[in-house]
Amino acid sequence: MASSSSTSTSTSTSTSTSVPARVRRQLPTSPWLFAAPGLLVVGIFILYPFVSTLINSFTDRRTLVPGEFVGLANFRELLHDEMFWIGLRNSTLYVLGVVPALVLLPLLLALLVQKNIPGIGFFRSAFYTPVVASIVVVGLIWVWLLDERGLVNSLLEAIGVGRVGFLSDQWLLLLSAMAVTVWKGLGYYMIIYLAALANVPRELHEAAAVDGAGTVRRFLTVTVPAVRSTMVLVGALSSVAAFKVFSEVYLMAGPNGGPAGEDTTLVMLVQRTGTGLTGRVGYASAISVVVFVVTVALMLLVLRADRKEDA
Amino acid sequence: MSVAEKVPEASPAPDAPRRRRKRVTDEHGRHVRAWELALRYLLLLAVLALTVGPFVWQLSTSLKGPTEDIFSSPPKFLPGDPTLHNYERVAETIPVWDYALNSLKVAAANVVTNCVGAALAGYALARLRYRGRRVATLVFILAMLVPVEGIIIAQFTTMRELGLNNTLVGVLLPGSIGAMNVLLMRNAFLNLPYEIEEAAYVDGANTWQRFLRIALPSVKGTLAVVAIFAFMFSWDDFLWPLIVLSDPDKFTLTIGLNYLHGTFANDERLVAAGTIIAVAPLIALFACLQRYFFRGVGEGAVKG
Fold first, then answer.
1. What pLDDT is attached to residue A27?
2. Which of A51, A87, B12, B208 is a plausible cystine mate for A269, CB 3.0–4.6 Å?
3. Which of A75, A24, A82, A29 is nearest to A54 (CA)?
4. CA-atom Rg of chain B in angstroms
5. What are the chain A neighbours of B125 within 8 Å (beta carbons)?
6. What's the CA gap between B53 and B61, in Å, rounded?
7. Distance between CA atoms of residues B53 and A198, nearest Å
8. How far apart, in whole angstroms, are the C-alpha atoms of residue A256 and residue A271?
9. How many other CB atoms are there within 10 angstroms of residue A203's CB atom?
10. Contact between A287 and A78 (Cβ < 8 Å)
11. Are A92 and A243 in contact (CB under 8 A)?
12. Domain spans of chain B, in order of start
């Protein structure tokens, strides 16, 4: 959501320069007074922490100890830190698991609710409900649903499959957390796709139908090309969000990411390493820098894939 | 969000003779195959069960009394003897209403600071001319691109330096004027015709009057979107309050729930009651103000 509007704002800069000249006369201080609160908040609580994260990553700063410059020591330590590699692996797996589902499923859902049949407004709203709920609520609901004795296992037992340890097996746990992320994101991306689908010319579908294309064929040859740029947008948004996953895994696997920490994600590791009175701020900042770098790389990767297909 | 009828699905596909069954006509006189409509509703109901079902199950669990078996297989979907007992018990276990009040305070303050701050800054970026405006715009764009999860530790040390860690003000501040909201407001102001403000200027209105009396009333819709999303993000936020709050007296609802889950994990009815308390206000808000929620998704994402 955040990344996309930057393009729209940067393109519209030119329109604002056509302000008539006589409006320029005004108290010289007032524009800055208007912008000051926003600039202060953003400067102190976003940009300054960003810069100090970069700086701290080269120090051995702790919560209560200012720390000294240690060069690349933190990054060298990362290479030999097993927990870091586990975190990187899990966060990467999360992207690979969640993004395809969040690009495709909400599109199918949007197609399902696109047609204005009676009661469709209710369904659209209902499908959006998980989006407005807090991730804590969502996480705890699913912890109970997937519990050893919870609803899902009761149903599985009733149909003879038997109980499954969704929250005890390392991989099933990660998979369950991914499913929860997808479940919570479905409605949000569905709305994005609905807006995109509204712009698909009806004639294209009609022409394809006349040519004898079936539902699946029309989906692949008409719908997908028409909403491709939206799919790229959803891919970019969801991959960045998935790599930074914290709450779902924290709630479902516990603060330590499972018994031996094998379900830890990178942001969980940042939180665990850097907070508390003994927090290793410098080392946690180095992990954060890795998060920045991968996030930017993911964005560039998705956008580049988009451009290549355009050419 | 009016969506065009999908005509092709209503017209018979030439290669499907075996699908020929009884046909119904919709209000536009087009043929709608009954089985297709039925299939559509069937799928809709299936997805409904999947998206809303878990909330209903949670509500049902929270209303089940202490003697009722909540683990039965096959499961019992409705409570046999509905009771609010669990809601009383959760309030005895953790100060859940105090936590709700803390959440409400932070969320309400977040709405005010975001609306005021973003409207002022957005107006300054869109309408006022001064040296450094482009730089100011760039500052907000850069701030929007910073992944918050990556700077939480530095935000925490900044809060410590300011002596605001473990306070509700500390929870509020980092998101109190979102860069994204500033840019949304900027775009809203840019989309207004300039002539009216120009006329007001000729009539002698100063910057403040033009902002307050002419520009602001015209962007009410975007302001409502900013307000709703500010409330939702604050009410739902987890990672930042988890880091900045350590004193159980100051917990917000999400942190309190996490604490409840960690400490009384085996009492499912209790946790269920807590989650319902946390989610009910937002579902009510959403039910009343749906179009602004949907519009917010549109303004935030589709423009790009």
1. 53
2. A87
3. A75
4. 26
5. 35
6. 12
7. 29
8. 10
9. 9
10. yes
11. yes
12. 35-83, 94-302
CATH class held by domain B94-302: mainly alpha
Cβ–Cβ contact A46 with B under 8 A: yes
CB A174 within 8 A of CB A93: yes
Enumerate residue ranges in chain A where pLDDT < 70: 1-29, 308-311
Looking up tokens 């403000």 gives B197
Nearest to B187 by CA among B139, B119, B233: B119
Q: Which residues contact B129 (CB under 8 A, 6 or more apart)?
A: A19, A23, A24, A31
Residue A159: both structure tokens together: 């149909």
Q: At which residue do the structure tokens 């992990």 appear?
A: A287
Position B257 pLDDT exceeds 70 = yes
CB atoms within 10 A of CB A280: 23
Helix (H) or strand (E) holding A202, with range, is helix A202-210
How many Cβ atoms are within 10 Å of B74's Cβ, its own excluded? 10
CB B153 within 8 A of CB A285: yes
Nearest CA in chain A to B192: A16
Query: Rounded to whole angstroms, how far apart are CA atoms A2 and B170?
Result: 23
Q: Looking at the partner chain, which of A10, A30, A218 has a beta carbon nearest the beta carbon of B141? A: A10
Comparing CB atoms, the residue among A129, A158, A270 nearest residue B153 is A270
Residues of B in contact with A142 (CB under 8 A): 54
3-state secondary structure of B203: coil
Residue B248 carries which DSSP code? Answer: G
Task: Pick left, alpha or beta for residue B245 (phi over 0 → left; psi -120 to 50 → alpha; otherwise beta).
Answer: beta
Question: Residue with structure tokens 């009384």?
Answer: B264
Residue A137: which of A245, A241, A248, A243 has the closest Cα? A248
Q: How far is CA B26 from CA A206, B8, B23, B147, in A?
A: 18, 14, 10, 49
- Integer Cα distance of B304 and B298 in angstroms: 10
| Nearest CB to B236 within list A32, A134, A246 | A134
Residues 6+ apart with CB under 8 A from A191: A110, A124, A128, B1, B294, B297, B298
| Among candidate residues A240, A207, A239, A210, the one with its CA nearest the CA of residue A226 | A207
| DSSP class of B205 | -
Q: CA angle, B244 as apex, B242 and B245 as ends, to 5°?
A: 70
Nearest residue to B26 (alpha-carbon basis) of B46, B13, B10: B10
Interface touch B279/A251, C-beta < 8 Å: no
* Amino acid residing at A179: A
**A157, two tokens:** 């037992």
Side chain identity, residue A46: I
How far is B276 from B61, CA to CA, in rounded Å? 10
How confident is the model over A26-49, as pLDDT tens digits?
555 688 889 999 999 999 999 999
Asked whether the CA dihedral A280, A283, A287, A290 is positive or negative, the reply is positive
**Other C-beta atoms lying within 10 Å of the C-beta of residue B49:** 11
Which pLDDT value is given to residue A158? 86
β-pair partners for B31: B25
CATH 3.40.720.10 fits A55-310, yes or no: no
pLDDT 10s digits, B209-238: 889 888 999 999 999 999 999 999 999 999
Burial readout B213-226 (b: 16 or more C-beta within 10 A, e: otherwise): ebbbeebeebbbbb
User: From CA A31, how far away is CA A19, in angstroms rounded?
Assistant: 15
